[in-house]
Write a structure and sequence with these properties.
Number of helices of chain A: 12
Shape of chain A: globular
Order of helices and strands of chain A: HHHEEEHEHEEEHHHEHEHHEHEEE
Oligomer: homodimer
Strand order of the largest sheet of chain A: 8-10-7-11-9-12-13
Number of strands of chain A: 13
Largest sheet of chain A: 7 strands, mixed
Helix content of chain A: 25-40%
Chain lengths: 353, 353
């Protein structure tokens, strides 16, 4: 009987989803309206029809001490806020309005109650900033690592909702913010220890420790009507892009030349002795958004991002062989098109060796 | 800085609830309609107004391996089903119709994937039997005890909904099923080990390992209009009754003579060398219901229970000093009223020494 580590996180998830009798990732179930299930497991969140004209969007994400946050680097308040952002980011990927949350806690008996209160306080403040409220929870005892599991509910209008599965060949690919920075920070902390506290790395550490989900921007983008699919960057750009491509049945070519320089990522890669592309596209929970956009909507999406002060880069098109992800190098000085190679960086596997 | 163990589970929960700025247990928030929060943390579930005429009822409950289920006594399928019933029981306490659930899992890399699938399969089957579906989840790696956190959503009509906080002096107190049996089974397993598998204890073990939440009965009882408050027995009869009395601002006298004999509880208490009342009323997650019923509604509630084939015992009235819980002994052979003593058995404290 294979173990989780032998199968890997995404294969186990696939088996669990299949065993429930649910459809493939991003698929709308044929029997959905009867059970009120518009979109089932496999996307960033489930979509549930609670009333005519009103969909509930539901997600859950959990943090384990030592795995998703490190006590030496995050205060309890920051760790709590980050768990809220991780869940808010799933709703942003669905362009939902965050409303209510439930928090289940597994805590050790010898933990200070004040730290638990601070964790919840940071979480509740981050939810409140996005318009949501913590309305209930559960507390149980554990003897090992503490964990925090949040379930978050949002709402959205049924019309015009997108999923991971709507990208079409020819659609543009946009990405918000500076992906790869959170993962770069974690790698620096592992490699340099306290040395990662040097001021030059502060923007990377901030991306890792105090991210902000793109909730407002997602809502504004939705109003453009140009987005055909989206997902958030919670595993890493390459891994999350792969999930979107798989759900949409398309491939993707990423153009290195279209990608804005990020000197911090490049400096971190040099210190770490890694390919900068592997740092940028590899494991990283940035809580940014990857969007598929109909070409005609590009300018309006750019305006919306500029108005919100959020960087938005157009980094290629969807198309080509389904699920094939390639990176096209910059053109040579002579103007010849750059060569392509497989996109470096795969998503993070919680059960990876 | 006090630890969770020093403060105890319920004091920590009180602090966490207060730190969020939420109202007292069972209270309706004054600002509720604006945020859609009809009933906040502190009851069996939160109540959220999603649309005019429609409330969402949301709860979360988690199981930790070795704490809430023991691998030697529960198959993964049974443990999963029991986690579903624990959550369904919270919705039964609110007379809600179960609809959708999200499951977050913390699993070890060296666990067999098949056991995880079986756990989820048992959980999904129990949800389906109650009309609900698993629509999403999350999987993360842990190194210690595995845990499973379920968030369950249901619906109910706003009119006629009850909480823990509506019991009035003079209301009758009813309890379904055979409370105390689940706790008796766990005590027998701890005291006798494999000896607890003797056929005579089978009904107790079934109450512990394969409980069924009273979802359908709660809906039928709601239609009587006679229920003024309810809670489920997830900590133990005395502890859960105390929570209901506290939320309602009433006391309760439990009449020993009104309580049907349970020869299995009595035999288990004798083997364990314990007061039978402490076994019956003490820590036990039976997932039965404690109900406050207006006196005029007694007969109709009895009819509903009889039609459903569920035992329902009327075991005293609410009243007396707020939060004072007493047990009145059977009348003497001479007919003199029995003496009262404090109700034995306090709820289970996860952080208790």
């Amino acid at each position: 009987m294979p173990t989780l580590r032998e199968l890997g996180e995404f294969e186990v998830l696939r088996l669990l989803t299949a065993a429930r009798g649910a459809g493939p990732a991003g698929a709308t179930l044929p029997g959905a309206p009867a059970a009120g299930i518009v979109l089932d497991a496999g996307d960033d969140a489930a979509v549930l029809r609670v009333a005519p004209g009103l969909d509930l969007v539901a997600t859950t994400d959990a943090f384990v001490e030592g795995e998703h946050f490190l006590g030496a680097w995050s205060s309890p308040r920051e760790a709590g806020a980050r768990l809220a952002e991780a869940n808010l980011s799933d709703l942003a990927a669905m362009a939902a309005v965050p409303r209510w949350a439930l928090l289940a806690i597994g805590a050790r008996g010898d933990s200070a109650a004040e730290e638990l209160i601070q964790f919840q306080s940071g979480l509740a403040a981050a939810l409140a900033a996005a318009g949501a409220a913590l309305v209930g929870g559960n507390l149980t005892a554990v003897s090992g690592a503490e964990w925090f599991s949040l379930a978050l509910l949002g709402e959205r209008e049924p019309a015009g909702g997108w999923t991971r599965g709507g990208a079409r060949p020819g659609d543009l690919r946009a990405v918000s913010g500076h992906v790869g920075r959170a993962g770069a920070a974690l790698r620096l902390v592992r490699a340099l220890g306290e040395g990662a506290r040097a001021p030059e790395w502060a923007p990377l550490l901030a991306a890792w420790l105090v991210p902000r989900a793109r909730v407002g921007l997602a809502r504004a983008r939705r109003r453009t009507g140009a987005v055909t699919a989206a997902t958030d960057v919670s595993d890493g750009f390459a891994g999350d892009l792969a999930h979107l491509c798989e759900a949409s049945g398309v491939g993707a070519e990423v153009e290195e030349s279209a990608w804005p320089q990020d000197s911090l990522i490049e400096r971190a890669a040099a210190v770490l002795g890694l390919d900068p592309a592997a740092v940028r596209f590899g494991p990283s929970d940035d809580y940014e958004l990857i969007l598929a956009i109909a070409p005609a909507g590009r300018e309006e999406c750019e305006r919306v991002a500029a108005a919100a002060g959020v960087p938005l880069a157009f980094v290629g098109r969807f198309g080509g062989a389904p699920a094939r992800l390639a990176l096209r190098a910059r053109a040579s000085a002579g103007g010849a098109a750059g060569a392509t190679r497989p996109l470096p960086g795969t998503g993070y596997d919680h059960f990876g060796a």
